[in-house]
Amino acid sequence: MDIFADIKELGHEQLVLCHDPSCGYLGIVAIHDTTLGPALGGTRYWQYASTDDAITDALRLARGMTYKAAVAGLNLGGGKSVIIGDNKRVDREALFRAHGRFIETLGGRYITAEDIGTSPADMEYVKLETNHVAGLMGLSGDPSPVTAYGVYMGMKAAARVRWGSDDLSGKTVAVQGAGKVAYYLCRHLHAEGVTIVVTDIDGAKVKRCVEEFGAKAVAPDAIYDQKADIYAPCALGATINDDTLKRLKVAVIAGGANNQLAEPRHGDALEAKGMLYAPDYVINGGGVINVYGELHRWPEERSRKKAGEIYDTILRIFEIARRDGIPSYLAADRLAEERIGAVAGLDRMWLRGR
């Protein structure tokens, strides 16, 4: 891959490759845009097939964080870091302390938190080396409950646009993934009387949803063939692709995963098929809201209330899409870019000492 061509195309400010041989640490930090504030984005710990795959994932996720923070109305930019390796590794202190030391060298331009493969306990190790970390134990901690609540509210907004009512009772939702966000989402859906179809590569997680929510379990690849009202991708990205578009039998796509569209053209294809798509980085913005709340010491209820505003943001995006005659994923980008552009265009003022 041509790294400079990729960061130029996506508009990134900085890409840092990090290595500490003492503990086998291989890390990547991508900073996309700091117009609105320091770049915030979690640390993903994953066994990538190649270094190119890891860099691509970091770049895409960092850009998504910029847009996510912008549409959520937060004073943050977008970044992301990834650690390459087996996230089941037990001896984690040295690894995450090494990660924290590299983050400290960025001088506050990047703030990390937990993500796939990491936990609040891992962030405590990072905290030993830098203050530029959130998602700590005893503070906001696991952002999954707030993220799931935002997805749930965004799903209700999409239902209102599609069916004229945000009442989900009696609807069937196919949930791909049964991890932390998906679990809390299923809890909300079950409480409202939704029929849930669920899958995950981890059978224990699926079993939990079956036992607690009466969900129907299906094989991982079979989730795309289910007859449902809503498809909720809540695992890894790119599950809206050439293959799945031929198989999905839903009216709405609204879930918590990042980078749900394999390519932008798949957003166009959803529009052509009449499937209503709630843009991923908008509907799953509760996680970044939760972390922002921790940084500013918000009480938990304030973060949850802010995540509930995703309902109104989703409605606004669908209105922009209707008004401008564009797919919803482009309408979300337009909303984010307008806010970033407005702040970037503000006149600088003289301040003593600067």
Describe the protein's topology.
Layout: H1 3-10, E1 14-20, E2 25-33, E3 39-40, E4 43-46, H2 51-71, E5 77-84, H3 93-104, E6 110-111, H4 120-127, H5 144-163, E7 172-176, H6 180-191, E8 195-199, H7 203-213, E9 216-217, E10 230-233, H8 242-245, E11 252-253, H9 264-273, E12 276-277, H10 280-283, H11 286-295, H12 300-308, H13 310-324, H14 328-344
Parallel strand pairs: 3-5, 3-6, 4-5, 7-8, 7-10, 8-9, 10-11, 11-12
Antiparallel strand pairs: 1-2, 2-5
Helix pairs in contact: 2-14, 3-4, 5-6, 5-11, 5-12, 5-13, 6-7, 11-12, 13-14
pLDDT averaged over residues: 95
Q: What is the SS-derived class? A: alpha/beta
Percent helix among the residues?
40-55%
CATH class of the largest domain: Alpha Beta
Q: Would you tell me which CATH topology of the largest domain applies?
A: Rossmann fold
**What are the secondary-structure elements, in order, as H or E?**
HEEEEHEHEHHEHEHEEHEHEHHHHH
Structure overview:
The protein has 354 residues and is α/β, with parallel strands linked by helices. The protein has two domains: 3-65 and 76-127, 3-Layer(aba) Sandwich (Rossmann fold); 144-338, NAD(P)-binding Rossmann-like Domain (Rossmann fold). 45% of the residues lie in helices and 15% in strands. The strands form two sheets. Strands 1, 2, 3, 4, 5 and 6 form a six-stranded mixed sheet that branches. A six-stranded parallel sheet has the order 9-8-7-10-11-12, sandwiched between helices. Strand 7 (172-176), helix 6 and strand 8 form a beta-alpha-beta unit. It is globular, with a radius of gyration of 20 Å.
